[in-house]
Each structure stands twice: as C-alpha cells, then as structure tokens.
Amino acid sequence: MNPIDRPRRTALYMPASNPRAVEKARVLDCDVVILDLEDAVLPEVKAEARAAAAAAVRAGGFGRREVVVRVNALATPWGDADLAQIAAAGPNAVLAPKVRDGADVRAYDAALAAAPAATALWAMIETPEAILHLAGVAAAARDTRLAAVVMGINDLAREMGARQTPGREAFQAALSLTVMAARTGGLIALDGVHNEIEDLAALEAVCRQGAAFGFDGKTLIHPSHLDICNRAFTPDPDEIAWARAVVAAFADPANAGKGALRVEGRLAERLHRDQAIRTIAIADAVAAAKGG
C-alpha cells in the first residue's frame, strides 16, 4: 500500500466554469479541490470551462489542497481537448469519468503522456461494467499513473435502475469491492457524493458508513458538508492512542518474535499493528496539513 502522504478526507467538486466557486475553493477546509469539466458544465461552455480550469491550476494559490480536474470522457466531443490542455497545466491529478476496465485506464494514461510526472490519474468507478472489472482497473496501477479510484454512485444507480436509500443497500457490494480493489493496487479510494444538501444527519451516517468500509475520504458537492466529512474520516484521539500503544508494544524488544500481544487489556495481533501504522500515518498527515 502506498504511504499516506497527505489526507484526502474531503474532495469537493467545484464547477470550473464558475470563477467565484473556484476562488472560494482556495480557502475552504477541504483536502482536495476537484475542478469539474464534466457533469457541472453545460456543453455550450465546455471550452470556456476548460480554459478556466487550466488557468486556475497554473495560477495556484490552493495552499495545502490537492487540485484535481475532472475531464470529459475520451468518447465525448470534449475529451481529447480536455486531456491535452489540462495535462499541459499540470494539476495534481486528472479524474477520468466512466472508466470501465484496465484498457480505459491505459487509454487515459496514454493521453496524459505530456503531463508532468507528478500528475496522477484518478478513475471514476460509476458503471456496472467497472464494478465487474475492478481487478483489471487496480492492476493497471502497476504501469500507469493511476493513483485513486472514486465512486460515482449517481451514475451507477442510474445504470442499475437502483434506488438510493439512506443505507445505500443496493450499492454496498460495489462500495466494498471498490475498496478491496483499491487496496490490492495500492490506491486511494474515495466514496461518492451525498445528494441531500440540507440533510446533515443523513450525511453523517453515510460518512461513517464510508469510513467503516475503509474509504480514505469522500467526494462532496457542497461546502456545508466539509466539517462533518472531515471529522468522520479523521481518526479520533482514542483510536490514535490505541494505535500508538499497539505499535510501541510490537516494537518492544521484550516482545520480539511474538505474533499476538495483550495491549491495554485487548488482543493485538500483527495485523492490528499494520492497521495501527496506517491509522497513525493518517493522523500524522492530517496534523501536518493543519500545520501547513
């Protein structure tokens, strides 16, 4: 698994065609800003939004926030131009929609050949075909820029003909499988958006559900969701303290060669140590981001 080099608890979509929204994103308490050229932008302003996104990336000023641009799909009339112009601008990542399999990952990777080496590729998982080809998507990370997968529940629901219930019962298998695939490829995994802007209780429930599934964070459509989501995907103090105690116990020379220990009255095996290391890495990344 890749090291947790920065937190990605909250990834906020902002329409690249809206200059005020882009400017506001520079000061919001989100870990990732996704400048959107796809769903949030009407066809008649796609070219204008593309130019605005490239200009915003070049201008910078986003501080600690990771800047990602969601392009239009290669199969659309705007995909090729999006990838060419955004690759030249060099964002932290390009988010590719409607990725179906490993071949799609490689097609987007090839289209980003001129981008700086530091520009990663993120892939939207939002179709039944993508769910059935998750292993191939994750495997493509071995020889491409692929660094993250992002759930697109709205499109998945439409293609499945499924209802979006508060517990997301129809999508739980897809959510779990996506996290599993991400872990096999050393990828970041982000949960999908919450559509009910004013229902913050429901938002908190799905954030906690996503964190329980193992997602690193969640994509969002409104700034009012940031605080709840940041808290849900940040390890709490008790969790951090337990993790540090587990790591310290296994590092104690007196416990050398032991596969299981009693730590503060609880069983801790080496698999718990590995989980503890990840928890500490996330907590440290969050603390470093706040300090920066």
The CATH superfamily of the largest domain is known as Phosphoenolpyruvate-binding domains
Distance between the terminal alpha carbons, to the nearest Å? 25 Å
Identify the CATH class of the largest domain.
Alpha Beta
CATH topology of the largest domain: TIM Barrel
**N-to-C SSE series?**
EHEHEHEHEHHEHHEHEHHEEH
CATH architecture of the largest domain: Alpha-Beta Barrel
Average of the residue pLDDT scores: 94
Shape: globular
State the helicity in percent bands: 40-55%
Count of discrete structural domains: 2
Please summarize the sheet with the most strands: 8 strands, parallel, barrel
Residue runs with pLDDT of under 50 for 5 or more positions? none
Strand order of the largest sheet: 1-2-3-4-5-6-7-8
- Quantity of strands, as a count: 10
Number of helices: 12
By helix and strand content, what is the structural category?
alpha/beta
Strand proportion, as a percent range, falls in 15-25%
